[in-house]
Amino acid sequence: MRLCLVSQTPLVLFLRERRQEHGTVPLKLSSLSEGEDYEFTAGGVTKMVYPLLRKMREGGLLEVAHWVSLNPGAPPLLSSSGLLLHHLELEKQRLSGYGAAKETLWRTLHGLSRETVDFLWQDEFIDYTYFNRKCAEFLLSLEKENDFDLFYIHDFQMLPLGHMLNLLKPKLFRWHLPFDETLLPEEWRPLLSLYFNSYEAVVVSCRKYLKTLRRLGYRGKSVHLYPYLDLSLYGKPTREEVEALCNRFGIGEDERVVLVVARLDPMKGQDRAIEGFAKAGIPGTKLMLVGDGSFSSSKKGMGLSKAERWLGYLRGRARELGVEDRVIFAGYLKPRELQAAYERCEVVLLPSLLEGFGLVVIEGWVYRKPCLVSRRAGVAELIKEGENGLLFDPLLPEELAEKLSLLLSDERLAASLGEGGKETSSLCSLERGVEEEAKVMRELVGE
Question: What is the Cα–Cα distance from 292 to 286, expressed in whole angstroms?
Fold first, then answer.
């Protein structure tokens, strides 16, 4: 199969500008140094897409695989593990407008704003549409050279792309965000329905999102597939690595750690975690917040400043609640450091106000950690209360505090939930994901 995959978020961000002319031999990722030349982009899309494409290439399902994404300042063509990665740019002014429009869409889909139809006529929406059109034109040029069998488009930013890609080739779309039609302005629904119906199939992360697709009038093939991770990558860190993490962040040998892993964004609920942690008042315990901005807020990405503002607010909130000396703002951690954090913690907490899924819970389960999960996260669909996790309402800090105290006081319950979670994590393994994705792809291309 010859596949072209598209996402807004790129696989890697370059730490220093590396430009080259289009049409040149691709730059090999293996010739660069991680941490010096580049870093992998944080987030679930890249954690899923890269292992998926590699596994499908190794298994012989994919003969050709191209991945197109937005990546300002990056070389236009990169190769890695038999994949070709194409990076598109936008002029600074258009990038700013695109980012503003994307944020409005994101906020609306998360119930944070109720924009009117006038938004569709604003200049920012023009820039948003422009990027999708530019991407469509680039894909058409790639198609002439490669004769793809399937186009696989990822996430809400790229939804209009299917409507713009006028080809008699099957198009598959994967939606990663929370999906509740009651949050959508009535005026938006016809346009969203038009866009969705440009795809032969749409994949969503939770079963309940299938109902939203139908209520929006989607007539194609709707599929529910849980997000997935390459669980083999989550190895056991050495004692030295764990000690190094503790020394770096001032975690004492006898101190207990509650871990939150999420990009810095109000929807991720780090403020709720701080409030619940403060109410629990458990001595000898620290709250560790891991994560910085997304691709959108990264200075190496789109350069939006919301992560920096949110971090300032969180620091102030910790001071107000008198726990600033017990809240660790760890920022970005490299993969081995993050694994050490999972190994060292006693509870993994997902406090999101609204979350499309929540792969950090799966990561916590890999390390047999008990997980305390927001009822408003998609992964809550996998939680069996008291068997593989505990649920709470992020708007009720008292409930969070109560259940956090329970997990830290009942070792038998904590261990049991960790074991139950470890068993459940197999539902989100890369092997299962590849099998289910391959089935959908083969059906679309008629294999």
Answer: 19
